[in-house]
Model the fold of this input.
Amino acid sequence: MILADPHCHLQDRRFDDDREAVIARALDALEWLAVVGDDIPNSETACQLVRPGVFAVVGVHPYHADGFTESDVDTLRALCARPGVIAIGETGLDYHNEFSARPAQRAAFVRQLALAAEMALPVVIHNREADGDTLAILADHAAALKSVIMHCFGSDAKAAERFAELGCYVSFAGNVTFPKAIPLREAASVVPAERLLAETDSPYLAPQPVRGKRCEPAFVRHTVEALAQLRGMSVETMAALLAENARRAFCLGDRERFQPLILGARP
Ligand SMILES: [Zn+2]
Ligand SMILES: [Zn+2]
Done:
């Protein structure tokens, strides 16, 4: 079975004691994974974790949008030249946890979308309780963007349809497997097959069979199994679909320099 985890935070301190063991288990179970940055320092750490099968995504989370500067943009641009950097993110809007002011969140989001367009890289978006503004901002920028991934989708089916209509990929994390997550499963059932993704967002949101544990990339198979059941497909067929979607979403086939990193992970 071919699996990928296009969104995890292995630079998190919860992996400090056994990070290499977690990566080894991930590369046993998965074709590839992407370590995603939240801020400048941990985007740099994500780049340091790159190796065959491990990619990096660099960006500043809406939590840290206050204080986001043009010099941060310059740093991110420089990080994009590092080997294995496949996307900008995570950026976006979080109106649930308003750790940064909304205008600052919108400004940092728009600036990072412009950087993704400039670098011709996909962009990974965090959207929590901000569907209206996220859709409006994306509608303005979608034409210039190579690929847009709505990570850890948490909105309803109507929003999922609207993001998919804009051409976004819609990525589900372990919370789609929780028994009470009925609206989320409705959303996962309406996304067009070619726009559907699964991720872990490790160390957060471990899926139902391992719920409450620290999540790790190898756990993505539980989310793939739940999506297969939800959409009436075999697990193997769903895994193959999601793996193909993930490669397309992150343009891995387009870029000769990324292919060796994927192929290197295969036994
Ligand atoms: Zn996020
Ligand atoms: Zn994340």
Remarks:
- Residues 90, 126, 151-152 surround zinc ion (ligand 1) (CB under 6 Å).
- Strands lie at 4-8, 32-36, 54-58, 85-94, 123-128, 148-151, 169-172, 196-198.
- The first helix runs from residue 19 to 29.
- The chain is about 40% helix and 15% strand.
